[in-house]
Amino acid sequence: MRALFEAIQETDVNRLRSVLTVLDGENIGEKALLVDGNIVWESRENGFFREYKKEIQERNETETFLLGGREIFCDVLGQEKQIVICGGGHVSIPVITLGVMMGCEVTVLEDRPTFADNARRAGATNVICEPFEQGLDKVEGNSDTYFVIVTRGHRYDQVCLEKIAQKEHAYIGMIGSRRRTTMVKQTLVEKGIDKEVLDKVYTPIGLDIGAQTPVEIAVAIMAEIIEVKNKKKRTCGYTKEIVKAVLDREDYPEKKVMATIVKRKGSAPQGVGIKMLVLRDGKCIGTIGGGCMEANVTQKALLMAAGKGPEIALCKVDMTGADAEEEGMVCGGVVSVLLELI
Questions:
Q1: Coil, strand or helix: which one is 18?
Q2: In angstroms, rounded to a whole number, what is the distance separating the alpha carbons of residues 155 and 281?
Q3: pTM, to two decimals
């Protein structure tokens, strides 16, 4: 498992990366790392997946599927989600709060020191207090970066959009009326900015829920970001904290267990691909949903880490019916969690 993490570290985060895992049969636990559909690492040389090169090239979503009579989990690896907010005004503050609650890294660009301080107090991960053009030069952007433009005036919107439209991104949203945003985009087209990119900018920003107050507008913005994010059907892969715990043998020398949701039916607190690392002392890095469901999985993981179980197992948790209700599993769905000893 550590070898897989080391291999992932060497891949380009901007390429399509996925990890395939056999979930049943004699090959259970066998893995392959793919980049753009091609095998770049495998847990067993010339293993199971070599026979199905064409079939696996077509997989670009996190899901479970059948291959050669075996059940396979395809885990498409994204990155940790980053929200970049241009502007530190009244709308920005609740967007920061909601972004942090979602577990995103939130970067705020604001050229006014007082408003930059407000963003820091709201919990922003990073605050860049410089003119927007200079500040955006410090933000690279990638396929998991969500840009939110909520500045105090259309001239600042234009500066931000011009810079952002030339960066890789998952989403660009800009506040303002249709007339105002149309004028900004038309000006940028005349300056040579790609019209196709500008046409995909979400304006006016946010889902149409009739939002009026700054908090309501922030909810609409975050709802739109969530909608865009979830359509991509990929998780952040392995968080920085999980990667550190797996690779750092000095600080984390004991055995640990990776728990990954590989199937979900009905309602569940987390989606397919979400991961949690269970340490030998019972501490967990990440969450697969909390509550009794997570506690159930954690107990099984601790037995594995103590050498009282298999090195790999598929754990099914049923959150339907009266028994589940009594245990507090109110979601009403069924999840399958892959447990792997590291």
A1: strand
A2: 54
A3: 0.73
Count of residues in the chain: 342
Domain ranges (residues) in the chain: 2-77, 82-231, 240-341
| pLDDT tens, position by position, 42-72 | 999 999 999 999 999 988 889 999 999 999 9
Please state, as a whole number, how many other Cβ atoms lie within 10 Å of the Cβ of residue 103: 12
The single-letter code of the amino acid at 210 is G
**Which position has the token pair 């690279």?**
140
CATH number of 82-231: 3.40.50.720
Task: For CA atoms 95, 101, 106, 111, give the dihedral sign.
Answer: positive
Provide DSSP, 79-143: ---EEEEE--STTHHHHHHHHHHTT-EEEEE-SSHHHHHHHHHTT-SEEE-S-HHHHHTT----T
30-44 confidence digits (pLDDT tens): 999 999 999 999 999
Is residue 69 classed as helix, strand or coil in its secondary structure?
A: coil
**Residue pLDDT, tens place only, 94-149:** 999 999 999 899 999 999 999 999 999 999 999 999 999 999 999 999 989 999 99
Full strand arrangement of the beta sheet holding 63-67 = 38-42, 31-35, 17-22, 70-77, 63-67
Q: Identify which has the larger pLDDT, 27 or 268.
A: 27
**Residues in Cβ contact with 196 at an 8 Å cutoff, skipping those fewer than 6 apart:** none
